[in-house]
Amino acid sequence: MKGYVIAGANKAEWRDFPVPKINPYGALIKTEIVSPCTTDIHLLQTGCASIPHLVGKAMGHEMVGTVQEVGSAVKNFKPGDRVVVSACQPNFRSMEAQAGMPKLNNTSQYWIDDPDRGGSFIEQYYLLDADMNLAHIPDSVTMEQAIMVPDMVSTAFEGVRELEIKYGDTVVMLGVGPVGLMGVCAAVLKGAGRVFVIGSRKVCFDVAKEYGATDFIDYHDGDFVKKILELNGGPVDGVLVSGGSSSSITEALNLVKRGGIVSNVTAFFADENTVLSNVAWGYGYSEKTIKAVECTGGRWILEKFLSLVEYGRLQPEKLITHRFHGMGKIEDAVQLFIDHDRSLIKPIVYFD
């Protein structure tokens, strides 16, 4: 089977792989749709400097597909089922799971060096634990809707959950790409009142408005921290950081009130150190909390998110701006990110 791999810094290529023999709990999934994201691009451009065991493995972590084969111990899935594959794949048979934090023991290709397992840009994806990390797609939910669930929805909703929003709170989405847009949806569902979004692209602002954002700030127009503080009459209740550089953490601290929460869902691959402003942090006495939040995963939460889509509470398909057909078109989808195409929110590639 063919997979699209990172072969070095700014170098990707197609390679042939053997079809792996699955374990009793595992599954093989026929890839139907994938979606590249900025994490894939960072890894490609750096040659996986932060995760070197990914070199030579298939890229990607956002996919939906059809079950091809399941192991002898799999109970809840069968060949032919339409499924979302969890981007974050917690080990629910671990001590961390028993302690209530399964995602701290992650079995995705990013965290474990299993020679049989790479990413989702491959004809058949091997999953270690089907019952725990696959999710059934409801009949009324399309695969286009479902493809946004494993990472974009999961990451944003987990980050917003950590903001501990109360009814009527004012929050800021620092970065309004696809994760920030899903953050708008999550914040509105949680009961936020005023929702500021910070970005620069009209395509993102337009979708953010549809999702319920109330204020739109272009960071090219000057000091956006000062502008938001003026518009809001003071600090906000919470900030979701879903873009920018490590300086975004200080900007978020400057925006949030004493006792407020900054929830970060951005990976700072290019920064060796994150330096915080003591003034922004209230010299360490501000009761401001910074949370470094990883995407959640697992069947239970993914099927909850899919239920939101099923009953019309969430329309993640609005993120999709570009559609390609044929797995060879992954290269074109990846190039959109490299070119910084301003019309892009999320591309998808059908493996047909």
Summarize the amount of helix as a percent range: 25-40%
**Sheet of most strands:** 7 strands, mixed
Helix and strand content put the structural class at: alpha/beta
Query: Number of helical runs?
Result: 11
Q: Into which percentage range does the β-strand content fall?
A: 15-25%
Low-confidence stretches: none
Mean pLDDT: 95
Which overall shape is indicated by the principal axes computed on the Cα atoms?
A: globular
Radius of gyration, CA atoms, in whole angstroms: 20 Å
Alpha-carbon distance between the termini? Answer: 14 Å
Order of helices and strands: EEEHEEHEHEHHEHEHEHEHEEHEHE
Assembly form of the protein: single chain
Number of DSSP-assigned strands: 15
Characterization of this structure:
The chain has helices at 38-46, 95-98, 130-133, 143-146, 149-161, 178-190, 202-211, 224-232, 247-255, 299-310, 330-338; strands at 2-8, 11-16, 27-34, 63-70, 82-85, 124-127, 134-136, 171-174, 195-199, 215-218, 236-241, 256-264, 289-292, 320-325, 346-350. The protein has eleven helices and 15 strands. It is globular, with a radius of gyration of 20 Å. By secondary structure, the protein is an alpha/beta fold.
List the helices and strands and how they pair.
Layout: E1 2-8, E2 11-16, E3 27-34, H1 38-46, E4 63-70, E5 82-85, H2 95-98, E6 124-127, H3 130-133, E7 134-136, H4 143-146, H5 149-161, E8 171-174, H6 178-190, E9 195-199, H7 202-211, E10 215-218, H8 224-232, E11 236-241, H9 247-255, E12 256-264, E13 289-292, H10 299-310, E14 320-325, H11 330-338, E15 346-350
Parallel strand pairs: 8-9, 8-11, 9-10, 11-12, 12-13, 14-15
Antiparallel strand pairs: 1-2, 3-4, 3-6, 3-15, 4-5, 5-7
Helix pairs in contact: 5-6, 5-10, 6-7, 8-9
